[in-house]
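Entry 14. Structure prediction run on the chain below.
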Amino acid sequence: MPMIVVVTRNVEGRYRGFLSSIMLELAPGVYAHPRISAGVRSRIWQVLSDWHNQLHQGSIVMTWVDSAANGGLGLSTLGEPPKEIVSHNAMLLVRRALSETTSAV
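Output returned:
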């Protein structure tokens, strides 16, 4: 049973109440639990997905240990994450767009 971490941003209070009832809130919008089974993780994600599909607000990222995934990290997102996460050579990387004011040196 691997650890999971959920990070929420700009979501309604119902998410905080739900996640706080099953996980430790480490910081505002950041939740963790050291031992959650894949089945429970799936049910938590289903609740979060259903609410997000109804409310269309904020963003949610869930991550967990997954030895079969790139970088050994399972990842699910809802909404607009602040950064784009891409897989490259069996690793997860963060890709950010270059601003138009950036010039080549």
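The chain has two helices and seven strands.
Filed with the rest of this week's runs.
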